[in-house]
Protein 1
Amino acid sequence: MIFMFIVGIISIFMRLWLYGLLKNILSKKKVSLSQSFYDGVRLIPILIVVILIVAGFFLLALFALGIAALITAGIFYLSPIAGLIVMIPLIICGIILLIAACLSLSYVTPIVIMENVDAWKAIKSSYQLFMKHKATTLALGLLSVLISFLAYLPVLIYQIPRGDFFGNQQVSLFSLPNQLVSIPLAVAQLFLLVLYVLAYLRIKKGSKR
């Protein structure tokens, strides 16, 4: 447990270092490993606030969804047909709103990495970019899902026959085979991070013309 905690902390700092390195490279600054690490670490407070704000919004959405579910259950109890008529549009609207909410946050990480802004400004700017570039953002989202699924296939193929998803783990999470099949997923995450940052910079450059 302690080992996994240490590995998790190291992974977080490695990701932050990657953020700083990416910023220095794309900003065409002199690349310094130590400066990149510092640039990444200083993003911690902003990222924490972003997580708290997003979590707060989703909790409010869940609360509203719970109220809607109670009302629908009451209607369904009185009249099953009327309950279905109300429930189906609510489910469809809920799915659409969830997808839209996720897409509206697509540019938060690139903005936090590349710009000196606070958490709320990053979220607001990401939402504004999504509203102006819905088709591009949706295409990026679909591409991200496809790439992530393909990258995760080796993990599924390796782990499912061993019962790793059913509480009967026969191999260590940190075993060499397990780490090897996870490489495509790590590469996909890095590729998607760079892709979103480049997409943000391209949109930003286009809006200045």
Protein 2
Amino acid sequence: MLATRSPHTFTLDFMTGASLSRLIALLVVALFAWCPTYTIASDGPKGSLEGGISTVVRSYISAEEKQDYARVYLSLSHGMKERLRRENVVKSANDYRKLRQSSEARWYDFVETKRNVKAETATVLLNVTIEESGEKERVPVTVRLVMQDGHWRIDAIEY
């Protein structure tokens, strides 16, 4: 690299306007590739709040219907996990699975009826069929979500 220095200037002799533009573009691409970005997998616009909520709610519904309680546990907020630990001695995904399976209730046929989103909290209302001991009942369920560590997490499930 040839450079000339004077007391007041520094120029790169080999740089033309086009090659300088390419260098800047390369640096910008490298910077974006290196820096972590905040995105939420979504069915809507990339990174949208609504899309991120839809993804979490669909994942939750799928896990409930498959009785994949370990996956449900992984989508819970720190606060909800702490409440489960205090109230039910649930310390892990396996403990949560045992707790849910002990109730013998099976949840399925979820229908979202309403959604309310505010900055870093959201409330999703669902109608769910809950079957227990052969009895089926349609039940309104409220799922409260919070933004935590850049991801939507389930903070409460109320029915």
Protein 3
Amino acid sequence: MADFLIYNTEHWMSKLSQEQIDEYTKKDPDFPRQYAARIMKGDIIEAQPDGFYTGDKARKFRTDVFAAVACPWIKLEDAKKYTEKVYEDAYALVFDEKTMTHSAVPIKKLSRKRRWNIENVVDTKLILKSSDELTLVDKLG
């Protein structure tokens, strides 16, 4: 059994107009990647054991920013996969002072802060009875 902590507010970037996005992109060419990677309302932040956020001795959390969703039919081990971040392959230039040359080193760059999203969160604490009540969305398609 598992409790999910869900981001339950709009990120400031989600409120930007296309004109504002273009303005930020002029200042920072990496902004479109940051914009795509922003956390979004409904994103699953973490998975914890049953009752961690929704039980009698539940841990407190900021209810103005987050919501807790109890999913008693999901094992914690299975729930952890819904908290994964998404990375893409990229390269960083590294300067070697001995040879006075640059080389490209493969790195992982964050492309999405969260992969999984729960669309139908409406309450601060929600205890679901079955998977029919849950709409999980894979943001990678």
